[in-house]
């Protein structure tokens, strides 16, 4: 197979958001296709009509776009291909590789209960496998079932799990077409993957049992089975399957928590795949290094602290202007956004850009960046937090008045000139620099912690600083 003919696919069910595990599956498919100069296709498995809303589908597409994982060609919607799925089921029926089953719901329930009581995994007993349809009871709409092999083995040579073997005597004659004529998921997936030319199926190992059933459909249709790779699921820090109680499950939640798409991609690629000791990968490095042999068989544990540290690294390495852009883009997704968005203008953007070198050193997320930059957007007179308010004694207010007078004498306003003026003031008044810096910080930011105070002076500019100091001075 030439590498350019490699086709992967990401095939999510629209459940309302792009699950973080789905994000990683999409990333692995995307990387494999990119590495081999192939294509990644996107198929929305929307056959469950109750859950498949436009909002749910939009959330998946939005999540993929935010992660910067593009796909080739148009999005394919499984439900729209139902006629083709039916046609394939009927061709198997005509070839004698499938049969009509007229078992009633009551008969099927009794069959299942009996099988379970006897400890058998095959729940359907094949009662209609060799019966003449002319003996069928009236009023039952038949299903179409696959005439699965009853002896021997079904084998998958999995790129991650190795050789996986099922005994055919334990597998059911699965339903391909329901009584109402709708195709089952198992049939739809096989037909879609074949028609889309998919060469490599990379998905979660919760689909491994499906692989056995799908292989039997491929065999019955005499179609070539794609290469299969079933990757372990992501677990929470406690080793159990990642669930709501562990926190954020959807990719959209990580955006709202202030993570950068590049950092989340880098974190996800290292969940279950390793490449020596390397932890940090550019997108180009990821594409060059990714291979299925590096995917482990055991579940990966999600480590929130590790993700946060990695995100902090990406923030520190980011270009200041791109962080201003990311800062703006996240405002639509965070509670603080509604208050901050109207305050974004040419002046505040320029101040944000000027503050970024010092802001990004302290922030591990865009939320922390927003919190650090609050002083730029604060309304006068500043609302003081309790710690800051406690420091504003009459003596401190008097000192702030004198600091304002000293700063009014500075005309060429920079971090260096304001620092020089404050050092001179401290020396002349036998004060330590800290005794000057903290009252300045409280008056200019309303808090007791902030970026470097001389950076704050430079970012806010002369006019705003003098005005804020006047607000708090005695």
Automatic annotation (TrEMBL):
CDD domains: GluRS_core. Transmembrane segments: none annotated. GO terms for biological process: glutamyl-tRNA aminoacylation. It is found in: Cytoplasm. The keyword Cell cycle does not apply. Monomer. Belongs to the class-I aminoacyl-tRNA synthetase family. Glutamate--tRNA ligase type 1 subfamily. Catalyzes the attachment of glutamate to tRNA(Glu) in a two-step reaction: glutamate is first activated by ATP to form Glu-AMP and then transferred to the acceptor end of tRNA(Glu). This is Glutamate--tRNA ligase.
């Amino acid at each position: 197979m030439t590498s350019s003919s490699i086709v992967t696919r990401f095939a999510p069910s629209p459940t309302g958001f792009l699950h973080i595990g789905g994000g990683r599956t999409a990333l692995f498919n995307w990387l494999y296709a990119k590495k081999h100069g192939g294509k990644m296709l996107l198929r929305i498995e929307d056959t469950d009509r109750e859950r498949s809303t436009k909002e749910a589908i939009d959330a998946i597409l939005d999540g993929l776009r935010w992660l910067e994982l593009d796909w080739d060609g148009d999005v394919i919607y499984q439900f729209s291909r139902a006629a083709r799925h039916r046609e394939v089921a009927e061709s198997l029926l005509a070839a004698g590789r499938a049969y009509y089953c007229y078992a009633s719901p009551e008969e099927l329930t009794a069959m299942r209960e009996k099988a379970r009581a006897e400890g058998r995994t095959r729940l359907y007993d094949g009662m209609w496998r060799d019966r003449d349809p002319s003996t069928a009871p009236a009023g039952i709409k038949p299903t179409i079932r696959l005439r699965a092999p009853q002896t021997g083995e079904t084998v998958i040579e999995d790129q991650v799990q190795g050789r996986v073997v099922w005994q055919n005597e334990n597998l059911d004659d699965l339903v391909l077409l329901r009584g109402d004529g709708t195709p089952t998921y198992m049939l739809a997936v096989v037909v879609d993957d074949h028609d889309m030319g998919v060469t490599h199926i990379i998905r979660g190992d919760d689909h491994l049992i499906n692989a056995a059933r799908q292989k039997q459909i491929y065999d019955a249709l005499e179609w070539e089975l794609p290469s299969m790779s079933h990757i372990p699921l992501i677990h929470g820090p406690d080793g159990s399957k990642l669930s709501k109680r562990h926190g954020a499950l959807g990719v959209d939640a990580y955006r709202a928590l202030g993570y950068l798409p590049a950092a989340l991609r880098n974190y996800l690629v290292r969940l279950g795949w390793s490449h020596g000791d390397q932890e940090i990968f550019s997108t180009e490095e990821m594409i060059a290094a990714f291979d299925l042999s590096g995917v482990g068989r055991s579940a990966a544990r999600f480590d929130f602290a590790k993700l946060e540290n990695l995100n902090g690294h990406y923030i520190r390495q980011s270009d200041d202007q791109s962080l201003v852009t990311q800062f703006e883009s996240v405002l639509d997704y965070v509670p603080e956004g509604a208050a901050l968005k109207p305050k974004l203008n040419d002046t505040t953007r320029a101040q944000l850009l000027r503050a970024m070198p010092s802001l990004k050193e302290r922030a591990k997320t865009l939320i922390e960046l927003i919190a650090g930059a609050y002083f730029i957007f604060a309304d006068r007179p500043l609302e003081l937090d309790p710690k800051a308010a406690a420091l504003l004694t009459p003596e401190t207010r008097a000192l702030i008045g004198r600091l304002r007078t000293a700063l009014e004498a500075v005309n060429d306003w920079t971090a260096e000139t304001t620092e020089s003026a404050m050092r001179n003031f401290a020396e002349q008044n036998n004060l330590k620099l800290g005794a000057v810096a903290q009252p300045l910080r409280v008056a200019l930011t309303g808090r007791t912690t902030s970026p470097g105070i001389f950076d704050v002076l430079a970012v806010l500019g002369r006019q705003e600083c003098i005005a804020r100091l006047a607000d708090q001075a005695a």
